[in-house]
Amino acid sequence: MEKLVSLCKRRGYIFQSSEIYGGLNSCYDYGPLGTELKQNIKSAWWRAMTYHHDNIEGVDASILMHPRVWEASGHVAGFTDPLVDCRRCKQRFRADQVTGSTCTNCGGQLTEPRQFNLMFKTFMGPVEEQASVVYLRPETAQGIFVNFQNVVTVSRQKVPFGIAQIGKAFRNEITPGNFIFRMREFEQMEMQFFVHPSTDSDWFEKWREERLQWHLSLGIQPDKLRWHEHGPGELAHYAKAAFDIQYEFPFGWQEIEGIHNRTDFDLKRHAEYSNKRLEYFDEARKEKYVPYVIETSVGCDRTLLTVLVDAYREEAVEGETRVVLRLSPRIAPIKAAILPLVRKDGMPEMSRRITDDLMRAHRVFHDETASVGKRYRRQDEIGTPFCVTIDSQSLQDQTVTVRERDSMQQERIAAAQLRAWLDERVMG
Ligand code: GAP
Predict the structure, then answer these.
(1) 337-370 pLDDT, tens digit each
(2) Ordered alpha helix ranges (H), 220-345
(3) N or C terminus of the chain: which is more exposed, having fewer CB within 10 Å?
C-alpha cells in the first residue's frame, strides 16, 4: 500500500485534500490521471447499466434532500455506529473494534458504548436552528426512491425496471483509513431495480452474477474476488438478504460492492412519511402493488483503489525493476503515448499528426523528451497500455511500431490503421 500511495501522489493520481494546510483527514483529491481513471470507471458502470439495459434509466438527484427523507429511510434513528471514548487521551473507537475496556492507544479507561450517527448535518438558509437542519446524503439510493413515481410517469418503463445514479455520499466515519478505502466524502454508483415481490429472489441472483462479471470486465484478477453473505447480525435495517463482493486488499478481504434485497421497505416508508401513493399498477398482472427493490451499490473510489491495487506490479526486466500498472485499456487514463524516436528528421511532426488524429477519440499523450526506454518506463508506471513509436522507417513507409505494456512485444502497423487498431483495444 505504501508504494502505491507514493506512486499515486508522485504521478498525479491522488493527493490529500487541502494538502498545503496539512490535509483533511480521510478526504482526497484526484489529480490529472486519477480524474481520468475515475471518469473511465464511471463511464464503464454507466454504460453497463443504462446503455446495455433498455429497462434502466438514469437520474441525478441533489445531495441535500428534505430532512423527512432520512427519517423515513431509517437513517436518523438507525444509521449509527456504537462508539467508545478513552477517558484519558480522548481518542474514539468503534465499540466493535476494541477488546476489553482499556484504550489501545494509552491504556486509559474506555467509556460505555453510545450510538453515534454517521450523517453530516448542515443548515439550510441563514438561520442556524433545529428547523433548518439538513443532512448530506449518506447514500445516493434515497434520491432514486423519492423519484420513483416521476420516472414511472415520464419514462413509461414497466416493472421490472431500474434507476441508476452516480453521485457523492458523505459519512462521518469513526475509523476512516486505508487511503481511499474508507473516506468521509466519496462517490457511489447505485442502481435500484424494481420488481414484482414474487420475483425478488430470481432478480437478486441475476444481479449478483451480473455485478461480479462487471468487476471481472475491468480486468480484476478472479481469484482476488469472493462473495460474502451477510448473516442476521450484519444485515442493514432495510435488507432481507445481502451479499458483498469482496476484494483481497493488502490489508485483508474487504467489501467493494453490496447487493441488497431491500424489499418494499423504502417505498412503503416514503409513502407513509410523505402521504403519497407509491404503488405501481401492473397492467400485465392486473395487480396493484409496491415493488420490491434489488439494489446494487458500489463505491467509485473503492473500485478505483481496487483496480490500482490489482494492477500494481514490480517486475525484473534486464536486471532492473520496472514498476507497471497493468490497467485494462478500457479504463487506463491514457490509452497510448506517441513517441518520436528522436527529435529530428520530421519524426516529431509525424508524431504530432498522429496524436492530433487519435486525440479526437482517445486520451493520448505526445512525448518527445528523454530516451525512448525512459519514456516507456514512465508510461508503464502510470498504466498506459500502448506506446506508438515513430522512427526513420515510419517516414518512408508510413508505418509505426506499437509496444504493448504487459508483454513488451512490439508490432509494426500502418499509421493509417492506428485509429481503428486502438478503438478495438480500448472499446473492445
Ligand atoms: N445504498 C446502500 C449502501 O450505501 P453500503 O454497503 O453502505 O450500502 C455501498 O455502501 C458501497 O459504497 C460500499 O460497498 C463501498 O464500495 C462504498 N462505500 C461505503 N462507505 C464508504 C466510505 N466511507 N468510503 C468509500 N466508499 C464507501
Answers:
(1) 999 999 999 999 999 999 999 999 999 999 999 8
(2) 265-274, 300-311
(3) C
